[in-house]
Design brief:
- The chain is mainly α and 126 residues long.
- The protein has one domain.
- The protein has five helices and no strands.
- Helix 1 packs antiparallel against helix 3, helix 3 packs antiparallel against helix 4 and helix 4 runs antiparallel to helix 5.
- The protein is globular.
Amino acid sequence: MATIRLIFKCLLALLMVTAGVGHFLNPEFFLKIMPPYLPFHRELVYFSGVCEIVLGVSLLIPRFSQLVAWGIIALLIAVFPANIYLYQNQGIVPASPTVHFLRLILQAVLIAWAYCYTKKSHSLRP
């Protein structure tokens, strides 16, 4: 069970890092989905990208995993308005309404996934 838990932890970390890198490779996508009421769109896109990369890498450091998992949850909640904005304005990114809805559901899944690492797991300690 510990091996499966570690594999999924690595997958979550990889997903976070990949998403973070995406903010730098394709910032225009993320700029499009920024709600207009937020200031400093470009800066927030890059900041959230840095946060995703740092949190993803840090999740793999056992000493910090619990705190980092809470950080991932906080970040996912913080970026949720962008996903709601995208769902409400589906013309921004051409995709079916189902795809846009699944993006909202994915946020909840990622939050639950990160929550799994907020508890101590002695089997993963060195």
